[in-house]
Fold these 4 entries.
Entry 1:
Amino acid sequence: MSSQTLTEKILSRASGKTVTEGDVIEAAVDIVAFHDLTGYHVIEVMEKAGMVKVFDKGKIVIAFDHLAPPPDVRSAEIQGNIRKFVKDVKIPNFYDINVGILHELLVEKYAQPGQVIVAADSHTTTSGALGAFAQGMGASDVAAAAITGKTWLVVPSSFKVTLEGEPAKWITGKDVALKLLGDFKAEYFNGKSIEVFVKNPSAFPMDYRATTSNMGIEMNADALMFVPDSETLRYVKQMRGYETKLVTPDSEAKYPEEYTIELNKMEPLVAAPYSVDNVKTAGEVQGTPIDQVYIGSCTNGRLSDFEIAARIMKGKKVKSRCIAIPASYEMFKEALERGYINTLFEAGCIVTYGTCGPCLGGHFGVAGPGEVILSTSSRNFRGRMGSNESKTYLSGPAVAAASAIAGKISLPGDVE
């Protein structure tokens, strides 16, 4: 067998044969997941096919997050129907409205290096943070995977990204994602799997990796995976209490394309309306008045995001509305115990946990006509967070927190 990239190694195992770029394969899946917004359609496909069953109950993960708690009668009805499915099929890995966002739960509790994960949501790529080949699919494909334990894939081309050095001050995973989007644009990685090598694993922790992997779908990548390393081992041991096994590319693996990012030379980046790849330095849009800041989502709702926000907001008051949503109960609990939640609350933020809420313009703070939002979430196309007449800028937690304090897009140094 020739030397393989991480993508080729994972998909070879999953398909039971040696694969190369462009092969159409049938792959065994390790986890199949869905949430309240898409789960209704997945179950509907099963019902229409007369096959309301799953290949392995222990490999199905369901979480309520998009419309949780339900903001309207229809959402409550859908969740009730999914609860019935969970009870009838006896799904053990079910998380109701009080636990967290699906993608965060997969990272915290389930994803492993070398797995194939499919879920009925595009941001499934988040699990690539642990070195899993994780891909979002439509309801029909996810229903088929849940029933059969298999899915079909086209083996993508592997693109190597190397992160060198220590991140400059305030630089996190969001800035790396935005740099890739700004340098290559949103369509470039279509049909590619991005494999990220971190030269100094501890310099780019799992929180940052999850953010970058989350936005792999914004790059139209088939997957965005961090090559498992000592940070992967540390995270799984800390969060789950056991040792995981690393699955890595062969040392002689050949990559058609390679790109290096020097973390120490980066500066905070922002995606301006109405595209994720309309990337500018934060300084270029500095001073833009804003109405609301959103800190959270499956993109940036982790502990490090709230540590950064609390550090900047401590002892200050927000001038714009600010909504802060840790991505899970675990993240909220830890942020609460460390005092971050109280700091944000004292600064004037509205805080809850475990809901997608405003990210998709669902509830808990949608954008009104003419309003300008600065969000740490993943998308800023027209109407994403509410009104078609609103504008959304995307940033990391440091710029978001500083901007909430100033009432305009700002750098952390502006409010220190």
Entry 2:
Amino acid sequence: MRLVTVGVSGSFPGPASPASTYLVHVPASEAEAAGATGDDVRDWNVVLDLGNGGLGALQRHVDPLDLDAVALSHLHPDHCADLSGLYVYLRYHPQRGAVSTGRDTHLPVYGPRATAERAGAMYGLEPGESMAGELDVRAWRPGVPVRVGPLELEPFEVFHPVEAYGIRVTGPSSVRPGERATLVYSGDTDLCDGLVAGAAGADLFLCEAGFQEGRDDRVEPGIHLTGRRAGKAAAEAGVRRLLLTHVAAWSDPQVSLAEAREVYDGPVAVAAPGEVHEL
């Protein structure tokens, strides 16, 4: 499987990147190698979060009609605002339903309990209207994995002011044929036991670093990690690689990188928009 870091900007879109939007892609060849048969031998695409500006950039990598699921970590706008645009795309695209692709015509959207209500409010649904014809919204159950083709997504609770989850994604490895690989996405969180447990042994840990040491200490706990705290979580979890993300446009990503390197001695980098990471 491959991770495409579509949008990596923290808290709001930056001048060079949309807000949090990440594509997990499994090519048909890897799906087949993982045991898929019949109509399941095809490309699979899951989006982790769909923040402000993410839908536009996502179209450089996949047609939204070819998505198999959206998985939301939480309901702050920088992680879910472009659900409105996706709904429009799915409802009004002239080719919607014209060609059988093997995909569900009601796109599964996994997220916190209030996802359907928040999506409707953002779009401005009138009383009695619903997005259910296009979006099949399903609430996460912590620790209960869901299957999307060759991928397994398992949510775990993290430390943020709203209901929030990290997501552990397991799928066929593109660098170790015949084996499984694990991607863990932190969502938004401060350092907590759940984050370390959820990231344990990950091949790639996509971890937010929205704050910086010293500068943001005045902010109450339970909002964001710093690069140092992300590095500490990575070290305690024993991950193979750390990829920092969710760095706000007003912050220097090299500061976050240096903080992480102080406490984590594995490979570490800062995510850039449009990158492809093989797992």
Entry 3:
Amino acid sequence: MKKRTKALLAWAAVLTMGVSVLASCGNKTASGDSAAAGENKAEGKTALSLAIWDEKQRPMMESLVEAYEKEHPDVTVEVQLTPYKGGEYWTKLEAAATGGKAPDVFWLNVLHTDSYVDGGILADLTDAIAKSDIKDNFPESLVNNYVRDGKNYAVPKDFDTNALWYNKEIFDKAGVSYPTNDMTYEDLVAKAEELKKAGLPDGVYPFACPVDFQTWYYQTVFANGGWILSEDKKTSGYDDPKTQGGIQCWIDMIDKGLSPSSAALSETSSDAMFEGGQLAMNFAGSYMVPEYAGNDTIKDKIDCVELPSFNGIETNCINGLGYAVYEGSKNKEAATDLAIWLSSKEAMDIQGNAGVVISARNESQELFAKSSDKYDLSVYTAHTDKAYPLPVCKNAAELYDMESKALQKAYSGEESLSDACKALKVEADAFLAKNQ
């Protein structure tokens, strides 16, 4: 297994790309080196480690650990926090796995699943999941996110979708009515044009159109009948006019001056601009809710609605995290038990009530919406049954990076979208051929 794991490090830098795109009780929280815990001789307990990357979820994870340890007094769990930014989490995890000392349980996203399966890092949880109630109580698409060759390598933790946020103060000063849940893409453009015509302050834009796949153009690509990957993962759909139509709609808004330029959005993210009062409207994943709600500058000025439909189709992309178990864990049975428990209604309710992410368990999803009396967060779960899963393949992060670089040329006007996509398809198909 170590031999296969070492192969991961050759392409580890690729996997550190960030996509949109989130510590145990008391003094047991750690941010140092990960380690397979083994037996805690001092306390006579089985010691497990649990790796996460989101500071905003630390208090919630502490609550989960506290509840688990209360039910399992013979086990102690140390939560290890490593930031996601800059790929630090993945780099550290891969290095620890190479040394045989990865955390017993760790957060996993779908982008890294294929490569980590190939690297021998992930324990097979198929039997444990079959004995649980997971398949009956979780969306099938989220469970299948971590299934490869009939084997399941992670337990669904949460999921994220997207919504349209707006700054009421900017709308009020412009004398423009607020966005609504039943808007279409055409309504969005009209609303943005109305704001521009009303005259916004210098440096303030109606909307933003960054080169962002999950939160922006994948949704309209799919709603337009386009596609990114074939079912067999052997070809890409960048040359399909329907795919390009779902991307061109955002470039059109930049060209009309309804959004900052792609260069400006490369320097300052749309989220940062929205929080700085520079955008009247912005798309944002559910993972941004805690940050928006905690921003004293805008939290009382903003609200959210469902994403606009496109071609009469409710658009949204769904993605999420899972709990994986390290194949080399010295306490793999106990680690598996922890991962399965984290899918329980008790655990998912604790997570849902925290209001930081949407719990993957069906009966716990509504708790995210109920966690705020300020915003209608049900917009994030309104059409999850129709949401499109992210297209993934082996080394998917590398494909997304390739895609982003190519489309940046079209967004900036350096190339036409048709030319950028034509070149991208050649590069992407060659990449897919190497990653079967």
Entry 4:
Amino acid sequence: MKRTFERRAVAAVVALCCAAPVWAQDPGLIPEDERYALHGQSTYVWQRKPAFASPYEGENSLQGKKAKSYSFTATVDLGLRLWEGAEFHVNGEGARGQAFSGLHGLGGLTNGELAKTAGADMVYYRARTFLRQTWGLGGGREAVEGDMNQLAGGQDKRRVVLTVGTVSMLDIFDSLESAHDPRTQFLNWSFLTHGSFDYAADSRGYTSGAALEYIDDGWAVRAGRFMMPKESNGLPLDTRLGKHYGDQIEFEKQYQAGNRPGTARIIGFRNKTRMADFGDAIAAGRAAGAAPELDTVRREHAKVGVGIGFDQSVTDDVNAFMRASWSDGKTETYAFTEIDRAVSAGVVVKGTQWSRPYDTVGAAVAVNALSRTHRGYLAAGGIGPFLGDGALNYGVEQIAETYYSWRPFKYFWLTGDAQYIRNPGYNRDRGPAKVFSVRLHTQF
């Protein structure tokens, strides 16, 4: 049954791409404002993991035996222009998949398309519902290309933007050009955003709230408050935004380095909710003569963190990126993944030199780490939302990923991807793990 579904999914993706039109018109032209638009996407990812050294395994380990994984998502976006500067979007989405080891055993998980709610049955849900209001303040006009969650038209270079509703936090914050979209770029979670950015989201990656942005010629500032899940990595959201919330503020500045454009971003976040402190869990476990548990020590806490990121054009066909982030690491991971400190960097090259200007090849590395109390909790036998080998010979998790994306049509991508992971789950006793992937993506 699963193989039949996979064959049908691949056939549907190929059929959509064959029906897609050729390349768009000159993006420098400012199109007329669209009144409404319908966009859609589908993405299929198949992954294979060979067996690796695994002398022991715990409840949340990445299992050492060879395994396969897959994911399939399909999204439809309906966008309407309500009045001048106002767009309303609603997304319907369906997803299914099978993760390695139940999506456990890594800080940098291998497929950004696999949500924590992934299962063998196709599940349909409302992903986004939001209003975006833009107030133009002059400074000249620039084109906006029609895309998912974006109507074609023009906008002032200097503007204020208010977004209210249900979105992904990464729709607004930390939008590095070369490393933010697992549907067309790097697959590993370490490259979606800052590893230690425990951004507000339900277990599918969406949240509700509001963000306000001021964008000017060469710089921008944005801030937002969004709902945290009611429980760690849970699906229902806590609607008490005055009590439990995820706050973030980001500053963005464009610059020139060696006559090449670049963009720097710095983001700070503060999450406030009822969560467990690793130190409290360790102390309670010692007192009871048992492995520490998070469930018994949850109370009101705040988690803070900061990240800095750079996009840098190297040539017309080469773009580099870098991120570095830190969180206090005192409390449990609540919405993203178990990373407390992270550094990542990479490069993406267009295929112009080999007469494939719409193809891309990417290579990146990431180093993920845990706070001292977080690693102490795991070493004592504690179980986190993603980690728990039962013991821990700590070492930083090191990830390398490379991909080649072949794009024969504007609306179709076929990608081959390879990942190499040392110290999976921060454990020197296990690994290294290797993961090989094939991804098919189409959108219209």
